């Protein structure tokens, strides 16, 4: 944790930051790989929600290049296996996530990101 | 096929919703036979397949056992007559099946001598197999249901025979899901807190959420994670968040929620834990989750709050505050933003709106709503519904003057609404003319639910 499935869902939500606020960029990421249970239905259910470019780029940034640059229309076992690994098995345990737009930092400690806004950052 | 379900003596109001949820999850229907009264411990129902009855026995927390139905009646004459008529169902056991015969009662204890008489009264069935108390091939059971005589004291066997109804059947399967109550016992958990939810109720919530392998389930008030463990146990992947990260972390590393999940062998299904105020969440899209299962803060043990100030700072103070925030000193990390109270009726309305946004079509929102028993009206629930969200379960856990209702709401629209903006509303100046019993619940709780004069 933070797994890339979660990272693919988190956008900067600070006041006024409404465009170019995704994906957050990892910095000083301490990555751990942990095996996770494979579930094809779960992956299929999540597929339509994925921001593909963000996922591919972030995986690359963390050293995984197994995903195709374009989201394939047909999914085969090989693809789902790689997708599973990228979404579920790459964990960022420490580091920060930085908004590409406003540079707001979201720190991660013990695998839990702090996405809490300050009172003056609330829209 | 007709079956007799014997319920555990707990949470009566949750029995029907649980049966229906488990049936919906496994895509079969239940036909309830006769007047099905969920306050009574025996229920007769029709199912298309034996496998469905087994599913109920294996998944329903409140099912004690499931019997193949042979007969019921208000007198032994009726019971025997029907048993004879249903001979086709049991005659295959006549030649050489070993059996045990149980005679038990609900709300009563039958003296042994009469238990023997009851067994003998079934002699016409003519079973030739041997009686085997330890390892019989089949178990036959006759149940006498007595009225609850509440507090009235009486001698042990008083009123013997004054049953209101009788049931007779052959054991199909003992309920096996009840053993999960002890498995998920909070006291045996590696990590818990004073907000942890008792195991039985969190298991019931997991069943209401239709948790199953491959589902994605969210708890926005994660705390120590009580809802996450049973839902993940049933195979779902769980995402949790809380405004207060310490609730999920506890002391030490890995975080407490993960330690407890590891104890149950489900840590890989805890997808992630995040710290944020659910009214200002960072999720970039909706339609994500199959269910949202949660115990919102209702202010008794853990008060509801949201980021903000009770009173705005003056411009001058705001400026110096911002100055300080932008040049943080090492010792004021991590920053804990100020919070303000979050009135329960606003929170619940927000939760339903947010769930409509975050759930997939067909997804469920399962949560507890505290309420003042005397003031509750059905309107309380309808008031916080919005278009596309339908109540499918509403079960009361009664603590006397107050109680809590487990509400199950289904998202029935496939319109993907825009993310709701959860404004502050002034609940006291509500434009609605109905005041729900859960409004200002915390104040009412600490006033002891005294009648409030206007
Ligand atoms: C009743 S407790 C939930 C307990 C949890 N089921 C458990 O097993 O411990 C409510 C939780 O909601 C959190 N909370 C309160 N206000 C919140 C908000 N605005 N956003 C997110 N979490 C909040 C509290 O920190 C608390 O942990
Ligand atoms: Zn930003």
How would the blueprint of this fold be written?
The complex is a heterodimer of chains A (123) and B (454).
Chain A: H1 4-7, E1 25-33, H2 40-46, H3 52-61, H4 77-89, E2 90-98, E3 105-109, E4 112-113
Antiparallel strand pairs in A: 1-2, 2-3, 3-4
Chain B: E1 2-7, H1 15-25, E2 31-32, E3 42-46, H2 50-59, E4 63-73, H3 76-85, H4 87-90, E5 99-106, H5 112-121, E6 138-145, E7 165-174, H6 179-183, H7 199-208, E8 216-219, H8 228-233, E9 237-242, H9 245-249, H10 256-263, E10 270-275, E11 289-294, E12 305-307, H11 315-326, E13 339-341, H12 344-358, E14 359-372, H13 378-383, E15 389-398, E16 402-411, H14 441-446
Parallel strand pairs in B: 5-6, 8-9, 8-11, 9-10, 11-14
Antiparallel strand pairs in B: 1-3, 1-4, 2-3, 4-7, 6-7, 12-13, 14-16, 15-16
The structure holds S-adenosylmethionine and zinc ion (ZN).
Residues 193, 195-197, 220-221, 223-227, 242-244, 247, 277-279, 295, 297, 302, 304-306, 342 of chain B line the site of S-adenosylmethionine.
Protein name (chain A): Trm112p-domain-containing protein
Keywords (chain B): Methyltransferase, Transferase
Protein name (chain B): RNA methylase
Short summary:
The complex is a heterodimer of chains A (123) and B (454). Chain A is an alpha+beta fold and 123 residues long.
